[in-house]
Amino acid sequence: MKRLLGILRRTTTDYEMIKDGDRVAVGISGKDSITLLYALHLYQKFSPVKFDLEAMTIDLGFPGLDLQPVQDFCRENNITYTVKKTDIAKIVFETRQESNPCSLCANMRRGALHNYMKERGLNVLALGHHADDAVETFLMNLLYTGRIATFAPKTFLTRKEVWVIRPFIFAWEKEIMHACRKYNLPIIVSPCPVDKKTNRENMKQLVKNLIRENSDAKINIMTAMRNKDKFDLRF
Fold first, then answer.
1. pLDDT > 90: what percent of the chain?
2. β-strand 124-126 against 154-157: which pairing, if any?
3. Do the domain assignments include residue 119?
4. What's the pLDDT score for residue 73?
5. Is the residue at 231 inside a domain?
6. d(C-alpha 193, C-alpha 205), whole Å
7. 94 assigned to some structural domain
8. Domain containing 214 — which CATH number?
9. Is 235 inside any structural domain?
10. Number of structural domains, the chain?
11. Read out DSSP for the chain?
12. How confident is residue 228, by pLDDT bands cut at 50, 70 and 90?
């Protein structure tokens, strides 16, 4: 957690992710976001800027979703936590019967998050995306769309007037997993029927195979992405 806090402090400072008076929301969906919430909660205690912090989960409507451990964690740490119930699962899998459900689901989930933020007067959305996510997104864009691109550490959504930040953008997934286990943070288990069966999962396997051939492959890809002069990335 000490290393993750160092990364969080550096990225929030370098990219001016959080400013005095900001109202920050963390969208909780798994190990990465719950670890980010805990890190931001700790960061509040020594941050040079003062900000409010809330957590929220978009309930997609899948049966079997257990959020009680997250609710207990937030109550114990005096963090406001809200669950927004939706019919996204029914719309995606029953009404629309999408052949590529992840894209529509992600768009609808983001829309629900942004709308709720406006209702609550929250102006910054913190996501738990990490360096592995950035590498996988880069490869997905390259191989499936022919674009050299990945997501940015900080983005402004003009229509919603919301900043989207990714404080863990330079942290590796294994570091987050280690912190999550060490501090016994609650993890939401996804009940989605296509979980672990997506193009992103294919990219995870591709990266693992690349690392078997070259242990520095993932680091080299991340280094290349950070070189603005050579690649037109949204960093």
1. 59
2. unpaired
3. yes
4. 97
5. no
6. 19
7. yes
8. 3.40.50.620
9. no
10. 1
11. -HHHHHHHHHHHHHTT---TT-EEEEE--SHHHHHHHHHHHHHTTT-SS--EEEEEEEE---TT---HHHHHHHHHTT-EEEEEE--HHHIIIIIS--SSHHHHHHHHHHHHHHHHHHHHT--EEE----HHHHHHHHHHIIIIIS------SEEEETTTTEEEE-TTTTS-HHHHHHHHHHTT---PPP--TTTT-SHHHHHHHHHHHHHHH-TTHHHHHHHHHT-TTT-----
12. low
Look at residue 89 and tell me whether its pLDDT is greater than 70.
yes
78: left (phi over 0), alpha (psi -120 to 50) or beta: left
Q: Which two tokens stand for residue 181?
A: 């286990």
Q: Are strands 124-126 and 23-27 parallel, antiparallel or unpaired?
A: parallel
Owning domain of residue 102: 2-225
Handedness of CA 180, 14, 153, 231 (dihedral sign): negative
Query: Rounded to an integer, what distance in angstroms lies between the CA atom of residue 235 and that of residue 232?
Result: 9
Spatial distance between the Cα atoms of 25 and 123, rounded to a whole number of angstroms:
8
Nearest to 40, CA basis, from 15, 69, 4 = 4
